[in-house]
Amino acid sequence: MTLKSLTYTSLARLDLTADDLEAIHRTARDVNALEGVTGLLIFNGTHFLQIIEGSPAAIDGLVERLRQDRRHSGLEVRDEREVSERSFPDWSMELVRVSASFFEAKETVSDRLPETISDPVRDRVIRMTEAISGTVSF
Ligand SMILES: Cc1cc2nc3c(=O)[nH]c(=O)nc-3n(C[C@H](O)[C@H](O)[C@H](O)COP(=O)(O)O)c2cc1C
Hints:
Helix content: 40-55%
Largest sheet: 5 strands, mixed
Distance between the termini: 34 Å
Bound molecules: flavin mononucleotide
Radius of gyration: 14 Å
CATH architecture: 2-Layer Sandwich
Order of helices and strands: EHEEHEEHH
Structural class: alpha+beta
CATH class: Alpha Beta
Number of helices: 4
Shape: globular
Number of strands: 5
Number of domains: 1
């Protein structure tokens, strides 16, 4: 089966509440479990970074829904590729809340990533975490 992995960043709605975040996470886990989508959602208080992986149809459908979702804006696809295996096979959607400071965020993310993850994927997650931290322009 062909698998697709897509990484995007977006800007959370300014008045997003903790309840909104919980609701997003709950929907993501429930729907993804049904659709065979797995991945990681990082939130640093202002921005989202999400990696989603699954069948091309499931990923394309999800991105369409994400683009319509008013709880965030400015969705930018940062990476999209065919992969031979999942990087997050056990996570229907893992939410990782991180500090706005890149140095703290990097530590939190590094601690939470699965040990089995490949170096290129680990590097991409860290690089993208830096991008949403605002320490580099993007
Ligand atoms: C940052 C963010 C991440 C999301 N992640 C997912 C996800 O992984 N899977 C999912 O089904 N919905 C996710 N959603 C919710 C979708 O945008 C959408 O509301 C949901 O899939 C239900 O779609 P529907 O209202 O068209 O039925 C996310 C929303 C936001 C704002």
